[in-house]
What does this fold into?
Amino acid sequence: MTTRYTEDHEYVRLDGDIATVGITHYAQDKLGDLVYVEQPKVGRVLAAGEDAAIIESVKAAAEVKSPVAGEVVEVNQAVVDDPSLVNTDPEGAGWFFRLRPSRPADLEGLMDEASYRAALG
It folds into this structure.
């Protein structure tokens, strides 16, 4: 399993040919308590960097961008029903959607964990 990170604080975890996308601990901490999540539709084809999900917190609204291009194959209904899951377990049960990357090699252009941690300072 390979995990990569974006400058916008999304993570993408590739397991076989399916990638799970969510936001990092850092991002959820900066947003504060999430109160609303709008997911992309299953079957939607996303470009890398395209707005995929909408999240709202007590502090702000934000978009979750797709780190890589691909087709959405699953959404996490649990975070729609209970957005606080993103705050309690953002890199586990609080994931947003899964997609089948059209070019899995594009993940190599994203930061690995050490590079992401270094970028945070």
Summary: The beta strands are 2-5, 10-15, 18-23, 34-38, 45-46, 51-57, 61-65, 70-75, 97-101. Residues 21 and 27 are 13 Å apart (CA to CA).
